[in-house]
Structure formats: C-alpha cells, structure tokens
Task: inverse folding
C-alpha cells in the first residue's frame, strides 16, 4: 500500500487547534494586559458595568492562555524553546508577568487583596527568572553578531513587566500593613530597574532603526510598547507617590513624582510619532492591515496612557492631565472593540474545517 502524502491527509479540527497552539505567540498575554488596563480605566471613570465586562474577558483570557501555554510546553516544547532563543520573540514572554499584575491590580479594586498578593508573588518570581534567562538565551548566548540588528519593540515589554510589579506592590502596600516595608522596597526597586531598562532598550532599539535597513513589515504594533512602557512607568510612579509613609518611599517620593510628570510628557510626545509610523507602514508602504496577535501590544499602550493620565492627574493635582486621560480612554475602548472582533473572526476562520467534496 502506498503512503498518502502528509499534505493530503484530512485535517481535523483537533489538528488545527494543535497547530495553533504550536504557533502560539509568546506575547499573547498582551490580550490580558489590554483588557485589564482598560477595565481599570473604566472603573476609575465610574463606568462600572463596562469595567466588569472587561474584567470577565481579562480573567477568561488569562485562564485560557495559561492552559494553552501549558499545553504548548507539554506538546510542543521545541517550538517554545525556539521562541526563548529568538531575540524577536523571546521578550514576549514578559507579557505573562505584566498580564498577571494588571489582572491582580484590577481585582484588588474588588477587594480581592489576597488573590492579588498571590499573583504578585508568582509574577515577581517569574520576572526575576525571565530577567536573567531571556537576555542570556536570546541575546548574550547567541553566536550571531550583531544581535542589535534583531532588536524590536517587544524588548520594551521587559520594562512593562518591571513596572507592573511596582504597580501591584504599591497597590498592596496600603492594605498589608505588616508587609509595608517589604512592599515599599519592592515597589521602588522594580520601578527603578524599569527606568534603567527603558533607557537601555530605547538605545538598543534606536540603534537598530538607525543603523539597519527597516522593512515596513518589521515596524509592527509592538513598537507602541515604547509608549506603553513610559505610561506604566507614570502609573507606577503615581501609585508610589500615593503610598503610605515608609523610609524607601519617603526618600524617593519627590523624585518619583517629578519624573512621572516628565515621563507623561514624553509618552504624549511619542504618540504622533507612532501614528506617523503606522501611516507610513500601511498607507505609504502598503503593508496590509490585518489581524495579528501582536495588535494587542498596541491596544495595551493606548489604555495604559489613559490610565496614566487619570492616575497622575489625581496623584499630583493636575486636572488637565486627568482630563486628557479620561478622554483618551474612549480611544482605547474603541480600538479594543475593533481588535477583539477581528481576533474572534480570525480564530473562528482558523478553526473551521473545510468540508470535503462528496465523491
């Protein structure tokens, strides 16, 4: 009996799901990040029902992605290891840390502080491990040089992960009085690390843009994380400013408050630059605008900028900054709805098994 070619084997729905799991992008937790941060913004603005709806999406997406990543590790470990070694994809794993803390911060607003503490503990440990493993496996451990030629916008997700730890720690510092000193140290420590990581990532990514040819297809949505990383630095700073008195906080409160305003201004400046880059990519260079999972890395910065304005305006008494954040929130909501619908359509089409013609 002759063997049927592999390509002609009928593909079942289960096989398609397995194929999608194998190709699952490490940065898909950006869906959790985007949904969670917009839910936080809606909650801060008093839109309770919409906020709860986004919280439900955030929780469901988080659980589903954890299950899918465990499945991928068990059944497609080689593909996951390849991602760890790829400088263009490896930093996407930090979306798990950021997504975990965004979810934790949101559920803290519901009074679920113990769950937030457990999520912070887990994310902090993962952040520490990935912070040493990924730079080595994806950058320092590679024989190819120069590695800077492979840098892209996903590198800023490391910054976002660091600042998400600071936000979560600052959120819990006012609740767990016995752990106040430790949480204050953790918040200031991770905020400071995030600031220096942003400077390093910005230099490396800027060198990549200036020194090497840039294909329009490579200037993808994760470059928006360069703005989102600044915005979450603002939020983390504002939350630290609002923390109760502690030696680490008291020593840095004035510095962090001032720098947060500067970072907000820089994030605002970056928005027209990134919009212009998108126009160049899609309208000048004609790259098709279709759904890709990395679009969530664009929605998160939009929501993060809105929340940054709201938090900073309230923490530092800047009404105009709060007003800008409140208005921008609806830009983020609109973008989230568009991308979510596109994602549902894309996944549905990928799972549909074409009917075999009758003989």
Result:
């Amino acid at each position: 009996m002759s063997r049927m070619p592999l390509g002609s084997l009928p593909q079942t729905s289960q096989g398609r799901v397995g194929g999608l799991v194998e190709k699952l992008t490490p940065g898909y937790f950006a869906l959790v990040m985007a949904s969670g941060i917009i839910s936080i913004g809606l909650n801060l603005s008093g839109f309770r029902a919409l906020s709860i709806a986004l919280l439900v999406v955030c929780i469901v997406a988080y659980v589903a992605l954890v299950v899918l990543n465990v499945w991928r590790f068990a059944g497609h470990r080689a593909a996951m290891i390849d991602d760890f070694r790829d400088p263009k994809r490896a930093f996407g794993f930090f979306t798990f840390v950021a997504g975990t803390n965004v979810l934790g911060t949101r559920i803290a607003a519901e009074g679920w502080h113990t769950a937030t503490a457990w999520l912070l503990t887990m994310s902090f440990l993962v952040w520490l491990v990935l912070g040493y493993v990924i730079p080595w496996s994806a950058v320092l451990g590679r024989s190819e040089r120069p590695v800077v030629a492979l840098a892209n916008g996903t590198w800023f997700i490391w910054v976002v992960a660091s600042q998400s730890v600071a936000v979560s720690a600052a959120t819990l510092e006012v609740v767990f009085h016995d752990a106040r000193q430790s949480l204050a140290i953790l918040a200031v420590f991770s905020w400071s690390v995030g600031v220096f990581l942003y400077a390093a990532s910005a230099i490396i990514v800027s060198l990549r843009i200036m020194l090497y040819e840039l294909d329009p297809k490579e200037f993808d949505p994760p470059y928006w994380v360069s703005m989102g990383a600044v915005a979450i630095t603002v939020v983390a700073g504002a939350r630290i400013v609002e923390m109760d008195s502690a030696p680490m906080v008291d020593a840095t409160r004035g510095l962090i408050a001032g720098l947060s305003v500067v970072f907000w201004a820089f994030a605002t400046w970056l928005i027209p630059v990134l919009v212009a880059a998108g126009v160049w990519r899609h309208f000048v260079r004609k790259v098709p605008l279709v759904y890709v999972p990395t679009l969530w890395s664009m929605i998160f910065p939009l929501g993060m900028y809105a929340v940054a304005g709201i938090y900073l305006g309230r923490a530092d008494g800047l009404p105009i900054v709060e007003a800008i954040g409140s208005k921008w929130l609806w830009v983020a909501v609109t973008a989230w709805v568009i991308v979510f619908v596109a994602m549902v359509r894309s996944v549905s089409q990928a799972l549909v098994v074409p009917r075999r013609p009758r003989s």
User: Anything to note?
Assistant: The chain has one domain: 20-346. The mean pLDDT is 89.
